Fold this protein.
Amino acid sequence: MINIRHERPTDAPAREALLDLAFGACRFEKASEHLREGCEPAGGLSFVATAPIPSLAGYRTIPFVLWMNGQARRGEDEAMVGTVRLWHIAAGARAALLLGPLAVHPSWRGRGIGAALTRCALAQARQLGHTAVLLVGDGPYYARFGFSADKTDRLWLPGRYEPERLLSHELEPGALDGAHGLISAAPPLPTQLGRGVSFTAAMHGRMELVEAA
Ligand SMILES: CC(C)(COP(=O)(O)OP(=O)(O)OC[C@H]1O[C@@H](n2cnc3c(N)ncnc32)[C@H](O)[C@@H]1OP(=O)(O)O)[C@@H](O)C(=O)NCCC(=O)NCCS
């Protein structure tokens, strides 16, 4: 079973290792990364996907640890297989969130984990009262969650990026109507402390929301 839960402070080393693996060293050169530099992610909007570590015997654990490229450590009962975080931004004059980086361990891709992380993050953002989410990413992947470039043509980021990859998704219809101007890091608005959202799924099946309490 894959579990999706809020990120904990102790998850940081595994998350950074996973991002290095997914994006390589050039990940810090991305325009969206510059926007996140020196900022804290939005409260309650960092999620990780974890897989249980087989613990029947040491000879089964060690190959699993190696296979996971450092995501799993001996003595732990779970390994991080996916990560997503959201950040406060201003899109022109509108308060919004920036989604990313989203990454799934190469050995665990194609099982719905990226989709479950994204849907979980969007559901929680909506529950916390946020109205719009932006990201820089692949349109063909993010279209399934409702992202498009329809409302980003008058918004821009500092740094180099492909404008057609600047996408948005309104959590509240019309939230980005007429939005124009620079996208910049922004201090958080007062938000509700959210209720948890959690997903569980069969390891080889598509993931489903089983609890949103
Ligand atoms: C993108 C990523 C997070 C997807 O994670 P995942 O758990 O494999 O995603 P899911 O299982 O939810 O979805 C898999 C589907 O998305 C498709 N997909 C994956 N990456 C895609 C992309 N960049 N563009 C279009 N489709 C993509 C797969 O082909 C698959 O299609 P199918 O459902 O028709 O078989 C993962 O591939 C990853 O970590 N990539 C490297 C980092 C990255 O590119 N992050 C996103 C920034 S744009």
Q: What stands out?
A: The chain has one domain: 2-201. The longest strand covers residues 78-91.
